[in-house]
Structures are given as structure tokens and as C-alpha cells.
TrEMBL record:
GO terms for molecular function: sulfotransferase activity. Its EC number is 2.8.2.-. The lineage of its organism: Eukaryota, Viridiplantae, Streptophyta, Embryophyta, Tracheophyta. It comes from the Eukaryota. The keyword Transferase applies. Keywords: Transferase. It comes from Cinnamomum micranthum f. kanehirae. Gene3D superfamilies: P-loop containing nucleotide triphosphate hydrolases. InterPro entries: P-loop_NTPase, Sulfotransferase_dom. This is Sulfotransferase. Belongs to the sulfotransferase 1 family. It is an enzyme of class 2 (transferase).
Length: 318
């Protein structure tokens, strides 16, 4: 958990936190970014030219990004791709929806994104306050997905431990919890990340759609319709009659995606094994991993942070 001074050429970074293995995090304007990808993020913030038709998916890590990518890609491209012969059957969702800064601005190089078919579909983890200004100015659509903090933390902790090499000991839950609770986590503090998008969704609901994992889990069909309406391509009467909404729900379900061969083998460009993006996919698994003390501490902090903003989670508490 040692903190060190940052390289002096990088005046924008204030401190580096080594404790959240395997990524060193650097604090930038109040948020914790992975130091390894700092040049990608900064190049994207400076050079990305957004268009009004863009759709940007944004999540806090481990809140169901893989699922949101599958759902959004399928809804947006449903006239182009039949479910029986669909790209998701042979490609992992992360391959189909690129990570705007980390996948496209590799080593800080500026890509040509002008020829991508419209609407361009991208994904990011950046907090609202750090988005490239062109994303705000273009008035493009943002879809934000988040999840209750206890499940998000457990999923993140277990996922990051999978990134460690064989000779590295897994990070104990107590150590990871301490950092998360202090706000030190990938793209954290977690609560400030939520609030940035929550407020934006209240101010500009036609441009920022706010979704909670727990509600998506409870009624995927409702949210698929909401997603399609938001994207300006509502399901037609004919699509409704043929049950397309329910078909997409089943097609993108945890069980269905997890069972595909492509999601059992291979890795994403950044090195995450495809299979590790499908663990349990339920609400409330935190009960199997957190102590009573941790639960109490996290609940209390969440209440303090979100109280007054009208943002709450159904997290399957006993
Ligand atoms: P758990 O670790 O709790 O199982 P991300 O995609 O942002 O990395 O989030 C991963 C989490 O979403 C994991 O949670 C994973 O199991 C869950 N997940 C992945 N695909 C899903 C799907 N189709 N439906 C519901 N949950 C899904």
C-alpha cells in the first residue's frame, strides 16, 4: 500500500498508489486512473472528436460492462445482424465495442475514427468530470451502468486477483477493501463516479441514460425497450409481435454468453481472459465474501455519500 512520488515530468499526477494490484493508480483531478494507460487517456481527452450520433457506454469497472456492450451492440445493429448469425456468437463483447481511450489511442497515438460506421459505439470508464470535452459539447448519447458498491467491490477484487502472475500472492480482501473504502479504486472514488453521471442524467435525461445493474437484472426486457427508445430506434410493433425483445434478452443473458465457446477461451486486447468477465452474474454475492464489519462500513459510507441525491440500490440485503 506504499505511496510514492510521481515521475517529475508528469506534473498533473499527484500521487501514485501501488497497493491496488496489479494496476498502479495515479490520482488525477480527484480520480484514480491506471498509470499504465495515462498517455492513452490523455491523448483521447485532448484529441477525440465526438459527433452528435456517437453512443458512449460508460461504467464503473465490474458493474456489467460486458453485458451492456452485448445489449447495446445487439439493439443498435439489429437490422444488420440476425441473432442466428450474430457477431456475438464468435466474438467477445469487448472486441465489438472498443474501449475509446485504451483500445484506440494506444501509446498516445491519434487514430482516424472518421470512417467508422455511424452511430459509432464506444466504451469508457472515465468519470463524467474527465470526459473529453467534445463528448459533452457534441451532445452525443451516453449510457451509464453502475452497480451496488458491495457487489462491485467483490467483483473487482476477485477479477484483479486473476491478473496477478503465478508467483504473486492474491491480495487479501481486507487490503483491497481498505483501499476501495478510501476511494482508491480503478476510476474511483466509486461514489463520485456515480454522482457525476447521476447528476448529468437528471440534467440531460435525453442524452444521459442511467441504468443500475440490479434493475437490469430484475427486468431486462423493460430496460431493453428503454435502451432502444433512448437510442432513437424503438422496437416496432412487428418486432414486438415476433418477441424480439425477449429474444435479445435471452441472447445476451449471463448463461447464454458464458456458454459460448468464444467466451471460454482467449483474451481481450488488454490481457483480460474472456472467461473472467463471466463469474456469477448475480445480485448479492457480496454476502459470501464480506464480513459484517465491512458490510456495515460500506453501507454507512454509501449512505453518507449518496444521501440527499436520491440515488439508492437494491442490493439483496438479507
Ligand atoms: P460478478 O463478478 O459479480 O459475477 P464487467 O463486465 O464490468 O467487467 O462486469 C463483470 C460482472 O458482470 C461480473 O460480475 C460478471 O459475472 C457480470 N456479467 C457479465 N455478463 C453478464 C450478463 N450477461 N448478465 C449479467 N451479469 C453479467
Amino acid at each position: 500500500m506504499a505511496m510514492s512520488c510521481v515521475p517529475e515530468h508528469n506534473e498533473t499526477l499527484s500521487i501514485v498508489e501501488k497497493g491496488w494490484k496489479p494496476f498502479e493508480l495515479s490520482q488525477y483531478q480527484g480520480f484514480w486512473l491506471p498509470l499504465k494507460y495515462f498517455s492513452e487517456t490523455m491523448a483521447c481527452r485532448e484529441h477525440f472528436e465526438s459527433s452528435k450520433d456517437d453512443v458512449i457506454l460508460i461504467t464503473t469497472p465490474k458493474s456489467g460492462t460486458t453485458w451492456l456492450k452485448a445489449l447495446s451492440f445487439t439493439v443498435l445493429n439489429r437490422t444488420r445482424h440476425d441473432l442466428n448469425n450474430h457477431p456475438l456468437l464468435t466474438r467477445n463483447p469487448h472486441e465489438l465495442v472498443p474501449w475509446l481511450d485504451l483500445d484506440l489511442y494506444v501509446d498516445g497515438k491519434i487514430p482516424d475514427l472518421t470512417n467508422l460506421p455511424s452511430p459509432r459505439l464506444f466504451f469508457m470508464h472515465l468519470p463524467y468530470e474527465l470526459l473529453p470535452t467534445s463528448i459533452i459539447e457534441s451532445n452525443c448519447r451516453i449510457i451509464y451502468l453502475c452497480r451496488n458498491p458491495k457487489d462491485t467491490f467483490v467483483s473487482l477484487w476477485l477479477f484483479l486477483n486473476k491478473y496477478l502472475s503465478e508467483d504473486e500472492a492474491p491480495v487479501p480482501v481486507e487490503e483491497a477493501f481498505e483501499l476501495f473504502h478510501r476511494g482508491i479504486s480503478l476510476y474511483g472514488p466509486f461514489w463520485e463516479h456515480l454522482l457525476g453521471y447521476w447528476k448529468a442524467s437528471l440534467e440531460r435525461p435525453e442524452r444521459v441514460l442511467f441504468i443500475k445493474y440490479e434493475e437490469l437484472k430484475e427486468d431486462p426486457a423493460f430496460h431493453l425497450r428503454r435502451l432502444a427508445d433512448f437510442l432513437g430506434c424503438p422496437f416496432s410493433d412487428e418486432e414486438e409481435r415476433e418477441g424480439l425483445v425477449e429474444k435479445i434478452e435471452r441472447f445476451c443473458s449471463f448463461e447464454s454468453l458464458k456458454s459460448l465457446e468464444v467466451n471460454k477461451i482467449g483474451s481481450t486486447r488488454l490481457g483480460g481472459e474472456n472467461k473472467n468477465f463471466f463469474r456469477r452474474g448475480v445480485v448479492g454475492d457480496w454476502e459470501n465474501h464480506l464480513t459484517e464489519e465491512m458490510i456495515e462500513k460500506l453501507d454507512k459510507l454509501t449512505q453518507q455519500k449518496l444521501e440527499g441525491f436520491g440515488l439508492t440500490f437494491k442490493d439483496a440485503k438479507k
